[in-house]
């Protein structure tokens, strides 16, 4: 797919705005998601956060909560939690509802197209945030090489997932290495840099939370892993019972 309005190369320019993009199934959203966005929004001093709930992800089985429920959970989880503006971008859910497969490369391309002409796009840094599990999968994503021309990519360490490049496909490892730099580089250009945050170890996963809720109901552990308002909502809707 042609990227009409993305800048031609990641040469240093005057970045006016940086946007943190964080996608996921959010089935359910958990404290790890909130903590991750808070951490990176502050660390990278972004101006805005876009949360992207996935449609029906092609690499996972079906989702338990509906799209509406996942959006509502995101609203409840992030309400008053960030010091910068955030929005919930529903484009992947809308594409899935129209039975159009949803891919991150299309989402980022759409965002750049929405911003219009090349000049304004050159001034906007898009920073895609993923966890270490998705770092491992990245080379299976549709047109993954193109993502390096649309956004920076930052990876959060996660227990159980190595950040070593030598176990990953060589083309991906080479491109990653070439793009890898200092955190300050993310503010110098609008796309094309990568950065690994190795200092995180939040042992939380939506799969584990779902399993525990299904098997044991709300325990002290699950209630500590899900924002309070989300827990109340889960209960009222009977999701994961
Ligand atoms: P599941 O267990 O079903 O895979 P999840 O906990 O990974 O779910 P998702 O909604 O799939 O939740 O994740 C959204 C994004 O957040 C992904 O990029 C994922 O890697 C990242 N992420 C989720 N939890 C963590 C965590 N504890 N540490 C680091 N990254 C995480």
TrEMBL record:
Keywords: ATP-binding, NAD, Nucleotide-binding, Nucleotidyltransferase, Pyridine nucleotide biosynthesis, Transferase. Pathway: Cofactor biosynthesis; NAD(+) biosynthesis; deamido-NAD(+) from nicotinate D-ribonucleotide: step 1/1. It catalyses: nicotinate beta-D-ribonucleotide + ATP + H(+) = deamido-NAD(+) + diphosphate. Its EC number is 2.7.7.18. Residues 21-211 form the Cytidyltransferase-like domain. InterPro entries: Cyt_trans-like, NadD/NMNAT, Rossmann-like_a/b/a_fold. It is an enzyme of class 2 (transferase). It holds the Pfam family CTP_transf_like. One of its GO terms (molecular function) is nucleotidyltransferase activity. The keyword NAD applies. SUPFAM superfamilies: Nucleotidylyl transferase. Catalyzes the reversible adenylation of nicotinate mononucleotide (NaMN) to nicotinic acid adenine dinucleotide (NaAD). Belongs to the NadD family. PANTHER family: NICOTINATE-NUCLEOTIDE ADENYLYLTRANSFERASE-RELATED, PHOSPHOPANTETHEINE ADENYLYLTRANSFERASE. This is Probable nicotinate-nucleotide adenylyltransferase. It comes from Undibacterium flavidum.
């Amino acid at each position: 797919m042609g990227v009409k309005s993305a800048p031609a190369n990641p040469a240093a320019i005057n970045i006016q705005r940086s946007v943190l993009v964080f996608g996921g199934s959010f089935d359910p959203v958990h404290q790890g998601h909130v903590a991750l966005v808070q951490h990176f929004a502050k660390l990278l001093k972004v101006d805005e956060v876009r949360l992207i709930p996935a449609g029906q992800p092609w690499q996972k089985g079906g989702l338990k909560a509906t799209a509406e429920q996942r959006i509502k959970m995101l609203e409840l989880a992030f309400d008053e939690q960030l010091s910068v503006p955030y929005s919930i971008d529903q484009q992947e859910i809308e594409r899935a509802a129209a039975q159009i497969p949803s891919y991150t490369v299309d989402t980022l391309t759409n965002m750049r197209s929405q911003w219009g002409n090349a000049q304004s796009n050159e001034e906007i840094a898009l920073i895609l945030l993923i966890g270490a599990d998705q770092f491992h999968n990245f080379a299976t994503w549709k047109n993954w090489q193109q993502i390096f021309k649309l956004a920076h990519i930052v990876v959060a360490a996660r227990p159980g997932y190595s950040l070593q490049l030598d176990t990953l496909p060589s083309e991906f490892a080479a491109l990653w290495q070439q793009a890898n730099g200092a955190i300050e580089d993310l503010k110098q250009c609008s796309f094309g840099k990568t950065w690994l945050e190795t200092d995180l170890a939040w042992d939380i996963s939506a799969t584990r939370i779902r399993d525990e809720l299904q098997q044991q109901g709300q325990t002290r552990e699950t209630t500590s892993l899900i924002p309070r308002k989300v827990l109340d909502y889960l209960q009222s809707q009977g999701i994961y019972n």
